[in-house]
Amino acid sequence: MNNNTILDNRWKYTDDRLKEYLKVYKKVSARTQDNIQDIFNSISYGYVDLNKPISAIQRKKFNRVIDEWKENGLLNGYFKYRVEELAKKRYITNEEVLEVLLWGAYVNERS
Question: CB 3.0-4.6 Å disulfide test: which of 11, 31, 35, 87 passes with 105?
Answer without folding.
Answer: 35
